[in-house]
Amino acid sequence: PANPTGTLLNRDELAALSQALKARNGHLVVDEIYHGLTYGVEASSVLEVDDEAFVLNSFSKYFGMTGWRLGWLVAPQDAVADLEKLAQNLYISAPSMAQHAALACFEPQTLEIFEQRRAEFGRRRDFLLPALRELGFGIAVEPEGAFYLYADISAFGGDAFAFCRHFLETEHVAFTPGLDFGRHQAGHHVRFAYTQSLPRLQRADRLQLMVHARQLPSMGLGDAPQHVSDPRFHLASTLQ
Known about the structure:
InterPro entries: Aminotransferase_I/II_large, AspAT/PAT-like, NHTrfase_class1_PyrdxlP-BS, PyrdxlP-dep_Trfase, PyrdxlP-dep_Trfase_major. This protein is an alpha+beta fold and about 240 residues long. The protein has two domains: about 10-105, 3-Layer(aba) Sandwich (Aspartate Aminotransferase, domain 2), CATH 3.40.640.10; about 110-215, Alpha-Beta Complex (Aspartate Aminotransferase, domain 1). The chain is about 35% helix and about 10% strand. It contains seven helices and six strands. The chain has helices at about 10-25, 80-90, 95-105, 110-135, 160-170, 200, 205-215; strands spanning about 30, 55-60, 70-75, 150, 175, 190-195. The strands form two sheets. The chain has a three-stranded mixed β-sheet with strand order 1-2-3, with no helix packed on it. Strands 4-6-5 form a three-stranded antiparallel β-sheet, with helices on one face. The longest helix is centred in the middle third of the chain and has 28 residues, at about 110-135. The protein is globular and about 60 Å long. The protein starts with 10 loop residues before the first helix and ends in a 26-residue tail after the last helix.
């Protein structure tokens, strides 16, 4: 699943990417950090179609170990020796405490908790997606994984940065401007994260949210700025 849209590349699309890279003597590097957090569909791994790909993953998302900074890399055998040299010079090894915590993730009772949480993320998505669309946010695709909604705010007349700043300062609600995720139409997109509990999401005053949004001053919807000087607005996107 992709951040910020929550969309997936299927097996055929991954195979096409792999073939395109091989035709150019390249290697495919894929971040699969949100694997496991899907709803009604299973995510394919690039390793199903390309055993020469580099795959990055982490215990931060599905396993909920954000902050432990523990992950792994699957790499072609002929790259392992050079990667070991990098590891020895950059960090040597992960802390033993984090490694023992990660082992506990694979206990049956722990996996059951993770699956319950995945189902809860699905319920939050199913609530927030129609609620935001009803308020006028344009959400082109239904996310199949991760825990984000990428929304077009063109209906509200303000650019993404001003929109996020407005809600942070007036409603104490934080979400992330699209400029954090690239340039394509980033100036009028924002990312919502459904990382808060469903009761908390349901308590949001949706009518007030809509009214305040429509009162935003028009600041243009041009391209996103190349640099943001104020670090307050590089936000973890979550409803506070």
